[in-house]
Write a structure and sequence with these properties.
4 helices; about 0% strand
């Protein structure tokens, strides 16, 4: 397995874990966990994965955050929260 794939998988797992911590501590409404996951993913993408390339880190962070939260279920929760 390629080192990039391993780093991405570890980043997604870390994002899932940190998002779950935020959920269990009830710091934020569960409907907004997609945003939390994206923020954590962006931070990991920029500071851990990209190694100084901010633009690549942002794209990778978005991919990490969406992978961790589930694109469709997270979007569904956000739409329901706005109603």
């Amino acid at each position: 397995m390629d080192n990039v794939a391993v780093n991405f998988a570890v980043a997604v797992a870390l994002t899932i874990g940190l998002t779950e911590v935020v959920k269990r501590l009830e710091w934020i409404n569960p409907k907004y966990l997609l945003v939390v996951s994206l923020i954590i993913g962006l931070a990991i993408g920029i500071f851990y994965i990209s190694e100084g390339d901010i633009k690549a880190g942002i794209w990778q962070g978005i991919a990490i955050g969406l992978s961790a939260s589930g694109l469709f279920s997270g979007t569904k929760n956000m739409v329901e929260a706005r109603k």
